[in-house]
Amino acid sequence: MPTVNVFKDVLFKALGREYSTEQFEELCFEYGIELEDETSEQEMVKKEQGEEKAKGKSNRGIYRIDVPANRYDLLCAEGLSRALKVYVGNAKPPVYKLVQPAGGKVQKVTVLPETAQIRPHLVCAVLRGITFDQDTYDSFIELQDKLHNNICRKRTLVAIGTHDLDTLKGPFTYEALAPTNIKFVPLNQTKEMNAEELMTFYESDRKLSKFLHIIRDSPVYPVIYDSNRTVLSLPPIINSNHSKIALETKNVFIECTATDITKARVVLNTIVAMFSQYCAEPFTVEPVEIATPNSTSTHRTPDISSRTVEATVGYINKSIGIHITADEVVRYLAKMSLSATLSSSRKSVSVSVPITRSDILHACDVMEDVAIAYGFNKIAKTVPRSITVGAPFPLNKLADFVRRELALSGYTEVLPLILCSHDENYEWLRRKDNGEAVKLANPQTIEFQVVRTSLIQGVLKTISSNKAVALPIKVFEVSDVVFKDESRERKSRNQRNMCVVFASKTSAFETVHGILDRIMAMLNVKLVSPDAAQDGYFIRESDNPTYFPGRCAEVVHKALSIGHLGIVHPEVLQKFEVPFPCTALEINIEPFL
Amino acid sequence: MSQESIQTDILARLDTHGSIDDTAILPYASDLILGVLNSLLSKEILTYTAIKGEKWVLTSEGQEVASGGSPEVALFNLIPSDAGLAVADAQEQMGEKAKVAMSNAMSKKWLKKQGDQLLRAVDSVTDQVQADLIKIKETGAFGDARVLQDYKRRKLCSAEKITSYSVQKGERFTTNVQKEATEITAEMLRTGEWKGQTFKKYNFNAAGVQVRGGHLHPLMKVREEFRQIFFELGFEEMPTNQFVESSFWNFDALFQPQQHPARDMHDTFFLKDPAVAGEMPKDYVERVKHVHSKGGYGSIGYGYDWKYSEAEKLILRTHTTAVSSYMLYKLAQEARANKEFRPVKYFSIDRVFRNETVDATHLAEFHQIEGVIADRGATLGDLIGILYNFFRKLGIEKLRFKPAYNPYTEPSLEIFSWHTGFKKWVEIGNSGMFRPEMLRPLGLPEDVSVIAWGLSLERPTMIKYSIDNIRELLGHKVDLEMVMTNPICRLDKKMGREI
Fold it and tell me: CB–CB of B246 and A490 under 8 A?
C-alpha cells in the first residue's frame, strides 16, 4: 500500500475544519484509507538521520496516510484532500475541461516507427499558466515518483517526463536511435554526453541505476526532440537539463512514454487531473496532437471524456443487502466523487466515471462505492440462507487420525518447513538427484532450493536444533512431500507421508518397528507373510543409502513399497549434526485412504 | 549417634518431664535434632518452637590456648627464676608468639626488663586465660562480658548464632513410634494390614511427577479448533494438497493482472523444473484472457496484452484462493452438467509460499485459513453476518470493517477487532465478494455471488501462546520443550497469556 504525506494544515483547510487525531482516524477508516502516522519533517529526519540533522527542520504537522494500491488519484495531497472534501460534503468534484491554446495551434508530436521496437506508446498534455509554490511544486515531483513506483511498475510500463514548455519549440518528434547518436546534458548535470556514456555515468547512481536495465541492451534508445533537435528526455531514464521545470515554470509539457497504452493514459490523466488545479483557469488542460507511425491519421491526448457505467438500483441493493432508494444511491455516489443520473424508469443509475477513477471497471465498483458511502459498519448483519453440510477432506481426516495415534504412542509432533536446500534433500541423505523433485527458479537463499521429496530431513534438522532435550527424543511429522508428475496439469503432485524418528544413546530398530506395527494395527491393516497373497503389510530387508546397511527394511503394502524404516546412516547424522543414533520410519499413508 | 537413638532420647525426656525447655542441653548436633523433630512433628507426636540464641566458641588460636596455655605463661616459664633471658633468645624460642607474650606479661607486670634481659618480677603466675577459655568452651558462655570482649579482641573466641528448640508433647504423643507407609500396596490389601497402618502425611504442595507422553504441535492444535468451527458452521474442507500451482489458477483466474506486483519475482516462488503447466481448460483460458485484455460481462477489463506464456508459468501457490478458484470452476462445471446450481460453503487451512525475506514476523511458508461461500444472491450483509458468527466462536465479539483493495474482490473489507490489551482496533483478516470478472468466466450463473475471507493461522496462534517470533513456532528451529509444554487451545477461552 503506498503511503502519502500530507500537511495537516493543507488538509484541514480543504476539509473546512480541524480534526483531532481520533476523529481523522475514524474518517480515514470509513473512507478506506489508513492514518499510518502523525509526524513532521523534523521528526522524520530525526528518525532516519539523527537529532543533529533534524535541527532547524520544519515541525509543521504531517499525516502519513496509506492509500489503496488502485487509487492513483489519492497519491498526492491535492487528490486526497479533494476526495475527502467531497466525501464529507464540503465540495463538489471538479469538472475537467480541454482548452485550445491562445493561438489555436496545438503542440504536435510525431511518433517515428522505430519506437515500436523499444517503447511504442506516447501520450502528452500541456498545463498552461500554472502557478507553483514550494508545497505544490514538491507535491508535483513527488506524485511523479509515486506513480513511477506504483502503476508505472518502476518505469517499465510508463515513464513520465515534465518540461518547461517555454524553453522548447515544437513540433516534437518521438524517435528511437542508436545510443551513440543521442547527445545531451542530463538533468542537473553540466556535461554533455551520449546515451552510451550516460548509461555508464548513472551505473553508480542510487536512484537511477535501477532503471537502466529497461533499455540498456536495446540497439536503439527512445528519445524525444523538439524542432531544434533539443533533447527533452531519454525515457525511461532521465530528462534533459535544458527543459527542466522549476518553481517559476508557467507552462508545463507532460509526456508519458509507455509499453502499456492503457496505463499511460491513466498516468497522464492522473497528473493533469491533480495539477490542472493550479492552472490560470483551474481544471483546464491543453491537448497535444500525436501523429502515430505508419498512419496518416492523428489523435489528441489526453482523453478526458468521462466513461459511463450503468448499474441498476436493484443490483446495488441486492449485492449489498440493503434497501435504499434510487435518490439515495445518487446521493451516496456523489459523496464518492461520482456523479450519477437516474434513468427515466428510476430503476438504474448512469454513473459518469471521471478520469481520476481508472479503478472503476464494472458496476460492482459502483456498488462498492455506494456501500462505502452507506458505511460498511451500518449494513445489517444477515446469514446466507442455504443449508450446507460440513465435511472434512478425507486425506486430512486420515492424517489427523495417524497424528493422534502417534502422539498417543508417546511421540511429539514437529513442523519443519516444506522447502529445503538441494543438499538436504539429496546429498546429505546420501541420495542421488533422480530428477523427481520440484526445483525453484528464484529463491532468495539456498535454504529454499527444492520442495522436499521426503520428511526425514526436516525432522533430523529439528532434532539437531534440540540437542539439549533429554533423550530419547521421539518425534514425528505427518505432512506433504511433492513429486514431479508429467501426467498432471500442474506437472506435480503432493503425497501425504508420515515420518517417525527415535533418537537415543543407542539405535532402536525394534522400537520404531513397533510404532509401524502399532499404526498399522490402528489403521486395521494386517501383518501378512511376504509370500502370502493377502492384503496387508510386511517389511523386508532393503538397501537404502539413507540407512545403515543391514539395518534397513522397506515397508510393503499390497505388493507395493510405501516407504522405509531403519537406522539412519552415521554419515547422514554427521551432515545434519545429530550426535546420537537415530532410527527412522517414513511411509506414504495415502494407500490407507 | 543414630537418628533412632536421638528420637528415643527425646521421647524419653518428654515422657518423663512433659517438655524439653531447650534442646541446647542435648549432646547432639543441632541439624540432627531438627531432623528428628520434624519427622515427629509430621506425625503430630510433638510440637516445637525455635529458640534463637548466641553461643561463644573458641577460635583456632583460642583452642590452642585452652589446651596448651597462654603464650605469656609460656614465656614466664621460659625465664629461669634466678637469671635473665635475652629478648633475642625469647624471640628465637617462641617465634612469632614472642611479641604478644612479652606485651601481655609486661602489662600484667609479671616481667621487667633490664637492658636486653628479661627478668621475673613475681615468683609465680596462674594461667587465668586458659582457665577462662576452657570454661567458655564448655559452657558456650562467660559471666563477665568485658573479659569476653577482651578475648574476642584477642581473636581467641567469637560469638555464633545458634538455634535450639523448645519441645512439647503433641496430640498423638507416644514413645512407641510406628514406621509410616507412603503408599498402599497390594500386599496391604491382601493382608488387611492397611487398617492398622499409619500413613505418612502427604505434602500437597509438592509438584506431581512429570508426564512424558506424546504431544501435538500448538499450531496444529489451533488448526484443529478452526476446523471444528468451520464444521459447526456447515463448511466442507477443500482438497488443498497441491502446492505447485500455475500462475493461471493462482492469479489470472482471480482477475489479477499480469503486471500486478504480487506476481513479481520478489514475492512469488517461480519454478525452474517443472517450469510450465500442461494444458489448461481451453475455453476457460480464452474467457479469462478476454476479460483481462478486453473486458466483458459488463467490465471494461484491464486493457493490456494478456500473455499465455505468463499464465502457464508454474509457481508455489501464494494463497489457498488458487484452490478456491479451481473448486468454483468445478462447481460451475457441475452446475452446467446437472443443470442445477448447488450452493456450497468451502474452507481450507493449509500451507502457502511467499518469496519473502525471513524475519520475526515473516517466513517463506505459513498457513492460510480461508472460508468461501457460493450462493445465489449472497450479499455483503451475509458476509458481515457470517464473519460475526465465525469470530464469535473465536471469542471475538467486536468487529469493524474497513474498505480495502484487492484485485479479485469488490467490495473488499479488511476485518478489524478490538484489542482489549492494546486498546485499539487491530487487523485480523481480509474478506470480500469475488468480482464478476472472476466469477462469470468460470461459468457460474449470473445471480451466484461468492463471499470469502482469509486470515493466517500463525498470527492467532502467536497471540494465543504469546510467541513473538514466528520462527519459534514453525520450522526446524522450534524448541521441543515449547511443543511439549504448551497447553491445549480453546479459541473461545482466554488462556491468560495472550499478547
Answer: yes
Q: Which residues contact B10 (CB under 8 A, 6 or more apart)?
A: B20, B23, B26, B33, B36, B37, B40, B46, B167
- CA A476 to chain CA centroid, Å, is 36
Triad B389, B390, B396: Cα angle to 5°: 90
Predicted TM-score of the model (pTM): 0.81
- Residue-by-residue DSSP string for B176-207: SPPPPBSS--HHHHHHTGGGT--BPPP-TTSP
Q: Which residues are within 8 A (CB) of A431 and not within 5 positions of it... i.e. 6 or more apart?
A: A425, A545, A546
Residues 445-484 of A with CB under 8 A from B: 445, 448, 451, 458, 461-462, 464-466, 469, 473-475, 480, 482, 484
- pLDDT tens for residues A152-206? 999 999 999 999 999 999 899 999 999 999 999 999 999 999 999 999 999 999 9
Give per-residue pLDDT as tens, B51-75.
888 888 888 888 888 888 888 888 8
Q: Does A189 touch chain B (CB under 8 A)?
A: no
Interface of A with B in 221-280 (CB under 8 A): 260-263
Buried b (16+ CB within 10 A) or exposed e, B77-109: eebeeeebbeeebbeeebeebbebbbebbbeee
What phi and psi values does residue B176 have, to the nearest 5 degrees?
-105, 85
A434 touches chain B (CB under 8 A): no
Nearest CA in chain B to A455: B476
Chain B residues inside the 8 Å CB shell of A464: 476
Asked whether the beta carbons of A382 and A322 are under 8 A apart, the reply is no
ipTM of the complex: 0.90
B375 contacts in chain A (CB < 8 Å): 384-386
pLDDT at B1: 65
Gap between the Cα atoms of B37 and B43, Å rounded: 10
Name chain B contacts of A68, Cβ cutoff 8 Å. Answer: 403-405
Q: Answer whether A413 sits within 8 Å of B217, measured CB to CB.
A: yes
DSSP A102-144: TTS--EEEEEPGGGGGT--EEEEEEE-S----HHHHHHHHHHH
Grid cell in block for residue B363: 517466513
Q: In chain A, which residues have pLDDT < 50?
A: none
